[in-house]
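Hi Y.,

Following your request, here is the sequence exactly as I used it, all 278 residues.
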Amino acid sequence: MEKAQQENQLLKRSLTGVLLIGIIVAMTFVGSNGFLLLLLVINELAILEYQRLIDRTGVSIQKLPSQIIGALFIFIAWLLVEQLYHASILMLLIPVIPFMFILELFRNKPNPFQDIAFSIMGLIWISVPLSLFLCLGFLPFQAGQYMPVMIMAYFIILWLSDTGAYLAGTLLGRHKLFPRISPNKTWEGSVGGLLLALLAGSLNYILFHHLQLGQWLCLAIIINVSGTLGDFTKSMLKRTAGVKDSGNILPGHGGILDRFDSLIGSAPFAFIYLYYIL
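Below is the corresponding structure, written out as tokens. Let me know if you'd prefer a different format.
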């Protein structure tokens, strides 16, 4: 019975993964508008899951304002890298944080500054990294040129890294990596993920040629290590909220945060690295 359940779970995970990959590839290569839409959807669903998790801790987060402001972050980033507006459009973000303080004056909640802090934290943790990830598709910022190949290469590293960690952890996992935060993660899985991330970096060098081999390998290490830390951060939030999965929108995978935590965790570090080498 247990074996049948495991096989059923693996089948659901595989089918969901294939469908999700197909959607990501299609939306990435359809153009910058499609890529923008993809990240807006991921952002809104991720923030919604974040808000539900925070609700379980007793904090009264500013829900709708957080979703609107998070989408604004990503949309303004897109306008900038598409070079549709001057950098002065960033001025629109200046009143965002003061607005959240002002809004709290009228909500009449028992812990207003705690509510403000958790509302802002969601934007910093989710929307800012996704905005930077959007910018990766336009590096080195020449005439608003969108380069889906770099985004696809990034996802290849993420996907192979996750696959290596899952397979190595399932087949060989013995030694716990960070049991206080994520009891199922093992050192063996971590090494497996890193090895396949390096393989993905080598594959990207063969397929795309946008970076030197050493640069691809460095990027793979950055994505793997910071992505793993992003996974732990999400696990820390789930343990605080007392739940197993961040959501159930993706059968076999859990929620959007469960699937994109590595992307959210790695995007800022990868952006800094690529910005300075491109």
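The chain has a mean pLDDT of 92.

Thanks again,
Q.
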